[in-house]
Write a structure and sequence with these properties.
11 helices; alpha/beta
Length: 403
């Protein structure tokens, strides 16, 4: 790989896990890896345009090791790792899911019709006690294969039913403690994050409170063994109860004087709840509060990184960039506001994208009058008539130059 990155030095207990970037809190994206995601070239373009130094993506155990004792298939994670490392970005590698051969309860393995023979391979629950060692071996293999990673993270949101059926904080603490010890024995310099906790309150069928999991991780000594605790302080609404509530939960559960470091590696504001301007204003405000260790937020001075969800998101509308009808990428206001803080370049100019397109069209017509005759195709669509807003007629103009 063509990169100037070197492995990070071994972490020092209580010291920041990641260097600040240009004097600011380290940042990046919790990246989308599903259908409609970015190509490797686009990932590099977005990361450089944003100015981030970190990215977070999953390394799925079931799809890396389909059979017990079988060899690892690294193709998916290799492609992502290479793309980000080439852009000067260190990935946080999120180890998720169990293969169907490593769990007791087969109902934890959801049926995905579109995956055919692999439909029940991925299980959203931790491995049974007989296979914790297999997960440890997988975690060690990841640490050795990807030495330029920023950190390895044990699971994602184990306090949500969607990622760990049953949401057992004691089972998660056992897995996290074992994997942390295995990684540290094999790769002492690799940072290990535990938690990846959704900021949630107790809700019987879906959620277990973040505070409950933090308390168990504290009492079982897992926080003392790991390098950092990761959590997801989504604002939820303009009033930001989810954001401030996450720090209240930390204040209620972390012991005074604790030297644990914190990573907020998922935070976002979906366009279904927030306008583009509100998304920008809320997330930039929260970044600045953590960047400046706002004293009104308990433990904010211990946060070493903030990662936004997500770069592009065709399903849940958290994205910072959108794909146009012609396949090009269009940064949202929040992207450009953060890029101006982090020193990104190449995607947010002073001239609006639509204006630049028309300028290119006029130049092309002057240079090639025969090839670029007045060609204009109008594509019409109507927005949904969702009360109280009336339906609106929207027109896109596709010009000869691709504008």
């Amino acid at each position: 790989m063509d990169t100037q990155l070197l492995p990070l030095p071994a972490p020092v207990r209580g010291a920041p896990l990641f260097p600040r970037q240009g004097g600011h809190l380290a940042s990046g994206f919790n990246v989308w890896v599903g259908p409609g995601g970015l190509s490797p070239t686009e990932r590099q373009q977005v990361q450089r345009g944003f100015g981030g130094t970190l990215a977070r993506f999953p390394v799925n155990w079931p799809y890396t090791q389909a059979r017990p004792g079988g060899s690892y298939d690294w193709r998916a994670s290799d492609d992502l790792y290479r793309a980000y490392v080439a852009a000067g970005t260190r990935p946080i590698l999120e180890l998720v899911a169990s293969p169907n051969w490593a769990v007791v309860d087969p109902t934890a393995c959801d049926f995905y019709l579109g995956r055919g023979a692999q439909s029940q391979q991925e299980c959203d629950i931790g491995p049974d006690s007989a296979h914790i060692g297999s997960f440890d071996a997988f975690a060690v293999a990841v640490a050795r294969r990807y030495p330029l990673a920023a950190a390895i993270e044990i699971w994602n949101e184990p306090n949500w039913e969607g990622y760990w059926k049953g949401r057992d904080p004691y089972a998660y603490a056992t897995l996290a403690a074992s994997a942390t010890a295995a990684i540290k024995a094999a790769a002492p310099a690799m940072r290990v994050l535990v938690g990846a906790l959704a900021n949630a309150r107790d809700d019987g069928p879906k959620w277990t409170a973040m505070a409950t999991f933090v308390s168990v991780l504290r009492d079982r000594g897992v926080l003392n063994a790991a390098d950092g605790l990761s959590f997801h302080p989504y604002p939820g609404t303009l009033a930001e109860p989810g954001f401030t509530g996450a720090f209240d939960a930390l204040q209620a559960t972390l012991p005074a004087g604790s030297d644990i470091r914190l990573v907020a590696d998922e935070i976002g504001a979906p366009s279904g709840t927030f306008t583009a301007a509100q998304q920008r204003d809320v997330l930039v405000k929260e970044y600045r509060e953590l960047d400046g260790a706002d004293p009104s937020l308990p433990w904010s001075g211990s946060v070493d990184a903030l990662l936004f969800n997500t770069d592009i998101d065709p399903n849940h509308r958290f994205g910072f960039v959108d794909r146009t009808l012609l396949g090009t990428l269009n940064p949202r206001p929040v992207f450009c506001a953060m890029a101006s803080i982090l020193g990104g370049s190449g995607m947010c100019g002073s001239t609006p994208l639509a204006v630049r397109s028309r300028v290119r069209q006029r130049r092309a017509v002057r240079s090639h009058p025969r090839r670029y005759r007045a060609m204009r195709i109008a594509v019409h669509a109507f927005s949904r008539n969702v009360p109280p807003r009336p339906a609106r007629r929207i027109t896109w103009a596709i010009t000869a130059d691709g504008g």
